[in-house]
Records
---
Amino acid sequence: MDAFRLMSSSVSPSVKSAVSAGLEAAYRDDLPFATPYSGLMRILVIEDERTLAGFIEQSLRAEGHAVTVCHDGESGEAAALTGDYALVLLDLTLPGKDGLEVLGGIRARMPELPVIVLTARAAVEQRVEGLDRGANDYVTKPFSFEELLARVRAQLRSPGQRESSVLEAASIRIDLRTRRVQRDGHDVELTAREFELLAYLIRHPDQVLSREQILNAVWGFDFDPGTKVLEVYIGYLRRKLGAEDGSDPIETVRNVGYRLRVPRG
């Protein structure tokens, strides 16, 4: 396929095999990807092979999930601990910080967060070590994307990892499955990025969220923290969500960030 021929010759053979085995699954729309969940989820991918990470991201987005990708252990662990994710896909061989160290850091602070390990380390003792360190599942490269997506679905169906498909706060109602948004019963048309930003805010009603938290969650951990893109998109949401009485549901907290304000009483 053309996309496979575009991969750099520097990509490792194991990654090329993984991509080749599952490439078709990443692009076909007739495969049974979308098993119904209680809601669509935010997933973190920590993988230093950028080509493989890109295909994993595309496959997960095809199922409707919001995906953040990190390419080294330190930024990946930091994102996992601050980004409100439902699942982490974690490579073990990472620059900066080994995947097992990252797994240990996640388990120390977020023992309930599901982690699927992705690795070329195929020996039985290595798989056992990963599971003993707290991984929920273990996928060996090369792998089929269909199998990986099935394992993701299995983890997201686990008790405690379900989220209602409908979120409501501050007279705003969003449906994660249909991506329909309403304010005071009136439909609001949002772009994909506006929808992700609003979904993140509405998951944390009345909570002050820093610029860094929001940028990490919606645009990805590697996004330039000095950018003004967040302010631009907050402005878009304010204009589209404005009520007839002029009330603004999104409050600016000076020198900190933003809050979706929920009226009292």
---
Amino acid sequence: MPELKSVIARNIVALRKSANWTQAELALKLNYSDKAISKWERAESTPDVDVLKNMADLFQVPVSYFFEEHPKDVGVPELLAGKQQMRNRIIIALVSIAGLFAVATVLYVLSGLLQVTICDPSWMLYIYAIPPSLVLLLVFNSVWGPKKLNLAIITALIWTVLLAVFLSFHAPNRWMVFLIGIPAQVIVLLLIPVKPVKLGKLIRPWHKPPGNTI
């Protein structure tokens, strides 16, 4: 692994050049001399934590950026754009989910103001909002996120649906609804080692080339 000083030095150079700043311009912004910047970039010395924090704020990257190696064929703007895109996606997902709970809150308030029974008790509206939120999360994660997380989301979806059903009824044996979750959970666990296979690979073993039949 390259020496940490060299990694920090290369990242400072890359960030400075991505901003089209000279060493003197960066030094002015950090209130340091351009000689200090030159030493950092030649890995002759390393800026302290406070300076790294100031540079991180200046370039809008996390402090950890300076300690990590980055692919040479991926420029700083691309890396920053990728991180910004991920943040935007997370925000979109959270806002969408928050919207569902906002609807539940509006219905809760209206049921109290208008003395209308939407569900009994009214706080169940928030329980009913959880499964649709997980469905939204599943959709967003299927499009943007790691597919392995889908199994955890599906698991949460199964049990929150069963919880909503359990709380909706007052039958003596309502606990039995959770028994449905056992085979459902087993199916989800069995899907973990399954890898997607192209249809052509499934069909090929059954296909016999002409002339080989007896």
---
Amino acid sequence: MKKIYLLFIVLLIGILFAGCRVSVRTNLNAPTVPDNLGPVSGTTEAETTMTLTWSVSVDPKGGTVYYDVYMGTIETPPVIAMDLTSTSYQVVDLENETTYYWRVVAKNEVGDSVSSQISSLTTKAAPLGNAVYRGLSLGLTDYGGSGDLSATDDDAEEIKVTFENLSEDYSIQKETGRVVKAQIQNWLTTFVSDSKGDDVFVFHYSGHGFYERGQSRMYLSDGSDMSMSELRGYLDQINGTKIVLIDACQSGNFTNMSSGRIMSEEEMVQQTTRFREGVLSAFEEAAGARGTYSTPYEYYVLTGCAVDEYSNEDGYLNHGFFSFFFCDGLGNVGVSNPSGLFDATYNADGYGPNGLADGKLTHSELYHYSKDKVSSYFQSTYGENTQTIQGNHTDSDFIVGIVSQR
């Protein structure tokens, strides 16, 4: 009986070793491991079109070696190319700022194969490319006398200076003083013909505004008005992403156009609420007649409408509150030095619940910064707050501007 058991054990060991010899033999029959993968693992700032390379694998029997390439955004990437005979492969149209994992499998004619190690790379941020960054900034001061404003031209200048100090090389056309509808139409039309889907266009308005006949309206120097839907119609013709900044006020001297009378403060408070809501409503995303654009949304809108003239502008800031603190967040001077020159402080960078201090000023960061700073300044200066900043897509990480290294 012992001999039988001993024989059984010997046979079992023999089978196990035989199995091991088969596995080793299979490995020995496979080509050598493809290594020296390029780009090297951990590469950052990789191009979105690149050539992957690896070393030659040798078949021990001198046969032809074929290569399969696996690549994707998961650590077990799918195959993207098979049966290559060269030791390189070009990949195209990778996503920007994305980590990819890849490996190469070498195999011979009978199917013996061996894999390289998993390698990783991260592509660079999207380039600015040929995008054009432009805008129109309006600061209406001339309303024919009693409704004149004194700091809206300063708002237009600050918007121009602030955007033109960003890395994107914005070019902002500034128009101040007396402005009428035909001029706005003509100015906007000049931006249409050569616009492209990856362009960015800024529209800024600082002046009187009101809500009437179901629409928010810009009140112009000659007593006419332009509704937000009219403005939207002209901006739709400009390809690219649009940033819309509306800083409007209703002073005690501002006459309701339909009634021809001075509104009470309570009526003006109600109107400003409707005005802000009307601005956002006019720029809701809708499939239809609109320009092409490459960002998640076509329109990024911020608006502040104040009840009284002094709540739009005061002697200390000498600017509209919204325009001032928006520019402050985007790199211009703050409340401690309101009359100073552009100081590249970029206070909104990293601000707010989704903020990230990375030198890229987002729509969300600028919304939260402007909203909080306007509220804080108005409360500390006037003991109340009748001006609230509102916006659309307020959690968006759309980049309004990048910190300049100049």
---
Amino acid sequence: MSTSLQPRPRKRGLPPAPRLDVPRLHATGDEPPFLRSKPRARVKRVRRGLVSRLALGVQLGALALALVGGGWIGVSRVLASERLHVSHVKVRGNHFLSEGEVRELLGLSGQESILGLDMEALKQRLRASPWLEDATVRRALPDAIEIEVHERAPLALAELDRLYLMDASGDLIDLYGARTAAYDLPIVRGLKGLGAEARRERAERAAALLSDLGDLQAELSEIQAEDSGDLQVVLRGGGEVLKFGAPPYRKSLEAFLALRQKLTERCPRAEYFDLRFRDRIYAKEPPLPQPTGAAAAPGPEVAPTLNAPAPQQAELAH
């Protein structure tokens, strides 16, 4: 029995889709190229040995020495330049010391470079002089130094083993002699044989008196610093002796000078006039000589009070 193959009837509708041969991307399990990250290349560090490190250190050290040496040579040439040698020294503020004496204190030879000078060391050399209280030193390029000094001002003559010029702080400045004879100053006594602290305390008291008197200190010839803390002064001219206690001093001296003639006429034998009391002046006179067996004489005459136009009675100091 024979059979014949007949084609199957096609279904009506859309035509069959064509078959496309598409490669299977995930068949091997790999990611697509546009999703894969690029592999990082590993850089192997080269470890230097001890010899290499030493060689590098030597090279760096040689470079540093070359730089330092070159810089030092350059600096040395600049410092050695004759244009920078100190050729001029300008001094201001000096009254007693001359410019030559100030230059001598500096101790410069003229061959020093102005850039290599130690300004602080120069100041210390200047301050070593007892005449200089302070000094400033400045460079003035290319070859000058400017100096401004502040000298101590002598206020009195301090009597020790010899006479010395003394300033307002009680510090000794210089010997009184031919070079300093132009200073006509009062003499401060009572400083001999004392320790440094006691001498300074008395000198400061006398200096305070002179500073307070101002221009009236020209009326004084001598000042005696006493153990009690008082000051006894001798006036120029008549040689009257005044005793001062605590400041202020100027007002008391002005009052005495206003009554000076009357007081000396009233009390010609006065040993001293006591100004230690407010608004009063007491005259201390020696006792009158008495015959043998006679009664003691009454007290000395009374000095007028400061605020009275005419003499008035007051208690005397003995």
